[in-house]
Every structure is written in C-alpha cells, then in structure tokens.
Amino acid sequence: MSGRRDTEALAHLRSVLEWHFGPETGSPFWLKRLDSLGFDPLRDVRDFADLRKFPDLSDELRTVPVDDLVPAGSAHLPFEVYESGGTLGAPKRVVEHLSRQEGVDWVETVLPDFDGGGHWLHIGPTGPHIVGRSVRRLAQLRGAKFLTVDFDPRWVKLLIRTDRRPLADEYVQHVLDQVETIAESQDVRVLFVTPPVLEALCARDRLYGLLADRLTGIIWSGTSISGTALRLLETEFFPNARVRGIYGNSLMGIAPQRPPRPGDTHPCVFRTFRPRSVVEVVDPATGERVAPGERGRVLVHLLTEDLFLPNVAERDTAVRIVPDDPDLPGDDLADVQPYRATADTQVIEGVY
Amino acid sequence: MDAPTLQPLVAGEHLACDETVDLPATDGTPLARVGAAPTLLLHLAVRRLRGAAVPPEVLDRAGALFAEAELAGESADAYRARTVAATGLPERVVAAGLHSVRTGLARLAESNARQLPAPAPGVRWLPRGRTLGVVTPSNHVDPHLTWARALSLGYGVVVRPGTRDPFTPFRLAAALLAAGLPPAALAVLPGDHALGERLLETTDLGIVYGGPGAVARWADRPRVLTRGPGRSAALLDRPLTPDLLDALARAVAADAGVRCANTSVIRTTGSPARAAEALAERLDALPAHPATHPEAVLPVFPATQAARLRQTLADLERAGLRRHTAADGPAPLPDGTWVGRPVVLSTGDPDHPAIGTELPFPFVVVAPYAPAAGPRQFGRTLVLSLHSDDPDLPDAALAEPGVRRVVVGGAPPWTGAPQLPHDGSLLDFLLEPKALLSDKEPLT
C-alpha cells in the first residue's frame, strides 16, 4: 500500500486506537481487557494487518452492559443501542452516536438516484435493528417521506427454526397486507425489502399491480438472492426500477452495491465504508486472505470513534473482489452466502 | 453421450438460469446439468400461465412424437439412454413406459369421458381451478400422464420434475408443444425441494408424488392430491401353487419393483416363513445386470443410495424380520452401480411396525393374516390382490376406505383401462359438476 489515502487510512487507524485505548477517552470494555490482550495495541498495532492480533470479542456483546461500550471521551453525548438480528443465538448489542450516520451519508453517494421523486417504503426491521434508522436517513437525504411496515425478523426465524413454515408465510402475508394498504394511497417509488418478502410480493397480483410500473428503486438486503432472480426482477417484474443490494449488519454497518461496470464477474459487488469498516475475505481454516475471486469467510474490523471492534468473524462467506481503490485496506465482496462451520450448524437465514 | 443442459421452460421458451445442478448417472459419470429455477421464476411462470382445452389430435400427435421423434436435439434412443442412466431403471422398463405414455395420450380423451358419469342434461364438468402444480416422481415414466391429462382438461400446468428424472417431463413438454399445445399452457421448472413446496402453495390445485415425508405435509390439504407410497398388498389364503407363486413374484418384481402398485406386503393364512421361502426362491433367480443390459429387470443405484438401502435392510433384520432371499440389499456391479436384488422378509407378528415399508426395488414383507380382523388390517393400501376363495372378501375389501383397488386372482395390480380409476378418480379431483339451466336445453 502506498499513497495519500493509505496514509490517511493509517492515520485513522492510529486515532481510533488512541481514542479507544486512551485512559481518558477509551471505553471500559476495552480498558478492562487491555491487560489480558498480551500486547500493547498502541505500540504493536501499526497496520491493518495487525488487527488480527485482537481476539474476536464479538460474543461478549451478547451480555456486556452497554455502558461499558461507550468511550469515556464520548460519555456526555447521546448514544443509542442497537442489536444484531439474532441469527445465531442471543443478539449482540452495539452503541452508536454518529458514526453509522456518517456511513449512511456515504452510502447515499454510492446508490443511484432512483429517478428522484416519490416516497420510500421500508419493509424491514426497525426497533433494535439499526437498518431501520439507516434507511430512514437515506430516504431523508433524498428528500423522500419514509413510510414503514414493522417487520420482526426474530419471530420469523423462530418459526422457521421450529419448523412452522406455514406460520412464517402467514406472517409475510400479514406484512404484505400492510404494504398493500400503503401502496393504495401513497406515492411509493423506492422499496427497501428482503428477497423472500419481495418474492412473496411478486406473487400477489393486486399488490404487484400497484407497484410494478411505479417503483423506480428497490433496495434488497438481509438474505442472499440468486443472479437469475435478480435478472428477473430487473427485466421482467420491475422494468422501471434500479435494483440495488445492501449487505451489512449491526456490527459492520452497511455496504451498498457499487455501480456495476464492464468486466464485473458478479452482478452485485458490495463495498464497505473504508477505512471505518474494513472487511477481509479469509480462509476459515488458516485465517489467510483468500485470492481475489475466491470464496472465504467474511472478517470484519469496525474502526469508528463510537465503537472499536476488530477481527470479528461474520456469519457469512463471500467472494473476494479487489476494490478499485486498493490504496485503502480491505476487500469488496460478492455473492454473499450464509456460512456453515459444519454440516450440523443450522443457520436460519429466514426472511430477513 | 454429451451432457445436455436442461433449463426451465416458461411459455414455450427456455430461460437460462445461472445456477445449475449437476445430475450424475447412477455410475457417477456426469449426465446433465439442470437449471435451478428461483421462486421468482415460478411466480413469473404462473403469471404467464394460460390453460386451454387441448384437442385429442394434439395429444395423439404428442404421444407419437414423445415415443419416436427427435425433440430438442434428443432422439428417442438418447432419451431412453439418459433416463436409464439417471434413474437406474432397467432399459425395458423405460421403453415400456415410453410406449404406455404414448398409448395413454392417444386414449386420454376417451379415458376422460369414460371416467365421468354419463352426460346428463344441464350438467357440465369443469376444472376446479385454472392452474395446477405437479411435483413429479423419478420412479417411472407413467405418472407423467397425470399432468398431460390436466392439460387436456384445460388446466395451465407447472411441473417441477423429480430430481433424478428431469428428462421425461422436458421431453413430454417438447412433444406436446411440437404437436400444437399452446405454449402458455405449460411450464417446466426444475428446482430444489423448496421450489416444489412453493409451487404447491401457489397454484390453484396441486399434485405431489413422493415418499412418506414428502407427501405428509400435504396429506390434509384438500387442494393438494398426494401420491405417496402405494403400500400395495396381497392376501394369500390358498395353497401355494406354481401359478400363484408366479403371480406373486410378478406383482412384487415386475417393472423392477418400482411402481406404487408393486406388492410390498403379503398377508397369509398359512405360514409366513414358508410362503416367503418359496417366493424368495423365485425372486433369487432374477438376473442381476446393469440397467443398460437388454435383459435387465432390476433397478440399479448409485453407491451412496445403495449404502442407505443396505442400512435400512440391516435395521429391519435387527428389528426381528427374517430374511429369505440370498440378497441382503443392493449388490455391487462391475460398472460401479449397485443392483437392487429382491429381498423377501417375513414376520410372525401381524402388527410388526415394518409392515408397509416400501423400498425402490423388489421388496416384500410376508406377515400373518388374521381372518377375524378382515381386510381392515391392511390399512391404507393402493392395490389389494386377493388370492382367496372367500366369496364375501372382494366386496368387504372394496368397502374399506383405505383400500383403493381390489384385484381378484392373478391379474397384475397395475392393469389399466381407460375407465379405471387409479387411486380415486383424478377427474374427481380436477373437475367438478356445475349446472347450466338453459331454455335451449330441456332438463327432461
């Protein structure tokens, strides 16, 4: 790595480490663990590769008191608490003042303009899930009204995990009933939706008819979708809409699909807000970065002033794509799929 | 043989899916690549589906094309070879299926007419829905007539092929389209298990073929017709003569033992062990050839499936069943496939839980028959063959709601004729009567 952006990225890493491990500014979470790390982050972490020295402490986010996570230097600021989806066990809690919002502001610059005009409808989680606030911010940046339908992903995952698929389907229809009520009277142009719910929407004649020609943008997220299904969405179901994916979660923030370009080997390439959110695609056995074009497990380093969380192995695998500004650390991602450590691990992808 | 790629068919056009699944032959060699339709393609297909009553000439022509023509670059010989390689069915069983589908198509209109009540003034029989989803099996060619029948009645049909046999529905679809079927009447969507479930939920009516697990979810849904294991049985209440043993052996092992009408339970008023021993001697004599051999009469399996079947059989013996055949499960052949040699087991326990087990090769459990309990002890039974001189038994057996067909004497359990229902009348499921009162049509 070389160049000015590289220097800036390293400066960012340096400042984040100094903030979170500074006795005056750091969080109780990290300061309490400083002695057990076996190294001095301020002395021994010189580059992004050194982040691998940290243990993956993300499991502790399931139980740690949220006050411990807030950096002392920010204690006087309003912090919000969000939780992960809870796909694998109890949810993980993160704290957030402004850093995610800055990420969302950057995401807004990556997404297409969806032809402007009209309003956004969020068919996705709100409440403890940060995505609700992030998409609200996106809509507001575009000058749109933000309409929402509540969607409880944990309930759906519980139904699927306990083999009650018909009830999960019924819940999706309940959600779509509410979408239909909104679509009847409101000028909805952009949808945020998960692929399974979008599929169910396409199967409802009346609702689909209300939205088919009207939508100018669809943002999908939450579960994977096949390349063929994406093509069908764009060419057959919603010919007037730009269809864009967002990958992400409560820990790493959101990674929008970057604009497609000639020579792309995958229909969707996701990009994180580097260097605040750095992902690496690694071989789960060795921890080594896989070669470009190869599939590996997603490893996340979150480096913001609000929260420092390095070396977190995500529940996903992805294909490593080389970013077009390789001065910055980290990979772009394609073809994200749920990760299975062994055949016995049941990952409930659900409908969110 | 080159490996073809089979892609979903919607409204007469094949839509290339990026996601494909490799279909290996039973010997492990690559045979075909099959597109995996996403749920959205199912919704698109249903949206475009438009059924239309199909004239008998189209069905007749389609039958001839199916049996003989080169369709989508595939000759009838290539089709047979691929189906044999993929399913492990003996060559002659596939050839016979090809022939019987051809005959069945030619007689569909007649069969439809003869399975309905005699025409009556003011009564019309009409489809109960517009669209039908069918999850087809891979065990035989014959069941594909079912969805052709639905097409003939005016249904728009979406077929999700069985995993091992996508060739038959694609070929039948190509034959029907070439014969003049309106393209919008049919879609063929290969895909995973979840796609099949979605299909059955999406269309107005559904038909699903499969094992006990596959059909259980739909058993109580009136809009989905399940075609599960046949649990076909025979009652033996006569001395064992060579003719009777021939009939039993044929009922167990004809068509490689893969039909739902193949006998898998025999209950006898005599000694189960003695009957099993005599039957085993006949069945042991069947030759064990690779499926492609012209003399092959037994199915073959890939090694992984053979291992599972052998384990199932070992468990049955451990559960107290006595084995009478030489074979204790599928046995390896030089070409890498495993041949399903017949297995005959017996038990002295009339209530043994293993009675009714179905396996995809000639397999039968012989158990005692308790005359006092009557034919009800057979439980759910697709075909009950009676070898008995009790004159009241045929009517008593037919009166059992779980018994779907009764055969008296040695006729093959699957004997067909246009007017005969298979498992209830398919027409009763697909059609319903409506009244048309018109001053142009007097009621008397």
Please give a handful of descriptors for the protein shown:
heterodimer; A: Rossmann fold; 6-stranded mixed β-sheet; 13 strands; B: 444 residues; alpha/beta; Aldehyde Dehydrogenase, Chain A, domain 1; Aldehyde Dehydrogenase, Chain A, domain 2; 2 domains; 7-stranded mixed β-sheet; 33% helix
Count of helix runs of chain A: 11
CATH superfamily of the largest domain in chain B: Aldehyde Dehydrogenase, Chain A, domain 1
Number of strands of chain B: 22
Continuous helix count of chain B: 14
Backbone shape of chain A: globular
Quaternary status of these chains?
heterodimer
Radius of gyration of chain B: 22 Å
Largest sheet of chain A: 6 strands, mixed
The residue ranges of chain B in which pLDDT falls below 50 over 5 or more consecutive positions are: none
Q: Just give the CATH class of the largest domain in chain A.
A: Alpha Beta
Strand order of the largest sheet of chain B: 3-2-9-8-7-10-11
| CATH homologous superfamily identity of the largest domain in chain A | ANL, N-terminal domain
CATH architecture of the largest domain in chain A: 3-Layer(aba) Sandwich
CATH class of the largest domain in chain B: Alpha Beta
Distance between the termini of chain A: 37 Å
**Count of β-strands of chain A:** 13
Structural class of chain B: alpha/beta
Spatial strand arrangement across the major sheet of chain A: 4-3-5-6-7-8
The level of helicity of chain A is 25-40%
Unreliably modeled segments of chain A: 343-347
Blueprint (SSEs and pairs):
The complex is a heterodimer of chains A (352) and B (444).
Chain A: H1 4-21, H2 28-33, H3 41-44, H4 66-69, E1 80-83, E2 93-96, H5 99-110, E3 119-123, H6 130-141, E4 146-149, H7 153-161, H8 165-185, E5 188-193, H9 195-202, H10 205-211, E6 217-221, H11 227-237, E7 242-249, E8 253-256, E9 269-270, E10 277-282, E11 295-303, E12 308-321, E13 332-338
Parallel strand pairs in A: 3-4, 3-5, 5-6, 6-7
Antiparallel strand pairs in A: 1-2, 7-8, 9-13, 10-11, 11-12, 12-13
Helix pairs in contact in A: 5-6, 7-8, 8-10
Chain B: E1 5-6, E2 9-10, E3 13-14, E4 20-24, E5 30-35, H1 39-48, H2 56-68, H3 76-87, H4 91-106, H5 108-115, E6 123-127, E7 131-135, H6 145-152, E8 156-160, H7 167-179, E9 186-188, H8 193-202, E10 205-209, H9 212-216, E11 224-227, E12 232-236, H10 242-253, E13 263-268, H11 272-284, E14 300-301, H12 303-318, E15 322-323, E16 331-332, E17 338-339, E18 343-346, E19 363-368, E20 384-387, H13 393-399, E21 406-408, H14 426-430, E22 431-435
Parallel strand pairs in B: 1-5, 7-8, 7-10, 8-9, 10-11, 12-13, 12-20, 13-19, 18-19, 20-21
Antiparallel strand pairs in B: 2-3, 2-9, 4-5, 6-22, 14-17, 15-18, 16-17
